Amino acid sequence: MTSGDRTEDLLRELAPQVLGTLARRHGQFDACEDAVQEALLAAALQWPAGGVPERPRAWLLTVAGRALTDEWRTDSARRRRETAAALDPAGLASAAGHRDAGAGEDDTLTLLFLCCHPALSPPSQLALTLRAVGGLSTAEIAAAFLAPEATIARRISRAKQSIRQAGARFELPGEPERTERLGVVLHVLYLLFNEGYTASSGPSLLRADLTAEAIRLTRLLHRLLPGQGEAAGLLALMLLTDARRAARARADGQAVPLAEQDRDLWDAAVIAEGQAILAATLGTGPVGPYQLQAAIAALHDEAPTAEETDWPQILALYDILAAVAPGPAVTLSRAVAIAMVHGPRAGLALLGTLDADARMAHTHRLEAVRAHLLEQAGDTAAARACYLRAARMTASLPEQRYLTLRAARLR
Amino acid sequence: MKYMIMMFGVTGAAAQDRSPEWIAGMHELMMKLDTELKESGECLASEALADPGQAKTVRFVGGTPVPTDGPFAEIKESLVGYWVVEADEERVLQIASRVVGYTECPMEVRRIMDHSVQP
Q1: Tens of pLDDT, residues B67-105
Q2: Cα separation values, A45 from A14, A48, A83, A101, A262, Å
């Protein structure tokens, strides 16, 4: 690890703490967020060469505090940049106090809840969370989402404006709102993970970063709220899923279905960590959808070969999931489990109940699963028609290629 | 100079009667070309479009815009993807020829207007 990497890790860890302290002192979340970004930039430029200050958190607080004062004195962005660049890091380390050190983690939690404010659209929640809590720059976020930097910059500034307009304050919401908002926070982290994980083509290294960031933030959330079973469940789900990353795509970007993956490529250490978190969580409280999905992922991970997968146990978990959190996506997965336990025709019968579901009208998943089950049932002609229908419906290039090839094999 | 290279109707439904080997070969060619053009710095943008079967067309009918299902052109003639490249015409035609040599489907090459004031 280079000193640049160490600086980056340290900055990402400190970013939400510094922003939290500043926002708590001054209010004005949006101005504070800009000021912290400036301080992070100054640190990223100065620390690798000049050395990390003795008290990095205090350094950042001082620089951000000055940027904030300057922001209030004048609107000139030019002058703000000059001030930040002219700051002398050596003289600053002792300037700011340590008073707020203990509040850092609570602030991070408050920040996470603020960035996942329900007034924001999911893309805005994701971008703002990455910047304010994750400490990523706008350019890094843009690279991760394959979007122009200007688009992400506008998305973040609109998100901050929406928070101001919604009258949100920098404080943890009280119950019952807190529980409700935790659900949104978990969902945002889940989306973040999927955004990185489902991108199996293109510049996937950057997207893998997004997955790592989602895991890092969920790990942080789990540490702050150890008693929340669903936060633990989500972390376990991410780890148990991400452990298979190396086996998920061929070198050419082609996706490899779970059953055909080389299990030697799965990361045993990551699986063990996910299993341990799950084992420590299950049974300690009400079981939620993330814990159930993690338990299902764990069963897949534990099977030495695809044939040895404990499908009856997976089906039992899907039955509970369908009762706790019913939805078309759960029905789809449950149909696959039913097919594995009771045969493809039984799975196809359950799929039939989704035909009239409007939520399935715009996704290729129903047709893709039906095609697989029809192929298993030996109905080649119908399977081929379903693969082609699914290929026409998908907006994912790797999926389209996979489905078209699958259809061509049944010609 | 910037050019847009447009590809028509060789993916999705239009490829359904080809052999698995042909389809795999086309995927390979597309990815290889895409990587080459990005690594050489010639490619400014490239996208594949979802199947034209998913398209909607908005037409001006009876004095009002009316959206209908389906693409403007026939499926076989529909745009399925494009590259925007920075290169001269000769090079652009060379790129397009490489694809057409495999797919046997036509491609269109169009110069992109620039914003500079010509003397």
Answers
A1: 999 888 887 788 989 999 999 999 999 999 999 999 888
A2: 16, 7, 14, 24, 43
Q: Which stretches of A7-153 are assigned E, i.e. beta strand?
A: none
Q: How many CB pairs under 8 A join A and B?
A: 47
Query: Residue B95 maps to which CATH number?
Result: 3.30.70.1060
Q: Strand, helix or coil at A381?
A: helix
Low-confidence ranges of chain A (pLDDT < 70): 1-4, 74-105, 199-208, 252-253
Residues A239-263: b if buried by 16+ CB within 10 A, e if exposed? bbbbbbbebbbeeeebbbeeeebee
Question: What pLDDT score was predicted for residue A4?
Answer: 64
Whether residue B116 is contained in a domain is answered as: no
Q: Is residue A371 part of a domain?
A: yes
- A207 in Cβ contact with A144 (< 8 Å): yes
In a domain, A175, yes or no: no
To the nearest whole percent, how much of chain B has pLDDT over 90? 53
Asked if A392's CB is within 8 angstroms of B20's CB, the reply is no
Place of tokens 């993916």: B11
Cα gap A120→A122, rounded to integer Å = 6
Interface contact A388, partner B, CB < 8 A: yes
The predicted model scores a pTM of: 0.78
Half-sphere exposure of A132 toward its Cβ, with a 13 Å CA cutoff?
32
Q: What are phi and psi of B104, to 5 degrees?
A: 65, 10
Contacting residues of B for A408, CB less than 8 Å apart: 15-16, 18-20, 23
**Domain assignment of residue A232, yes or no:** no
Residues of chain B found within 8 Å of residue A367, distances taken between Cβ atoms: none
Q: Which residues pair with B8 in a beta bridge?
A: B79
Cα–Cα distance, A215 to A239 (Å, whole number): 7
Report the amino acid identity of residue A330. V
Q: Given this model, what pLDDT does residue A141 score?
A: 84
Best B7, B10, B17, B23 member to test A by mutation, with max A CBs in 10 Å, is: B23
| ipTM > 0.85, yes or no | no
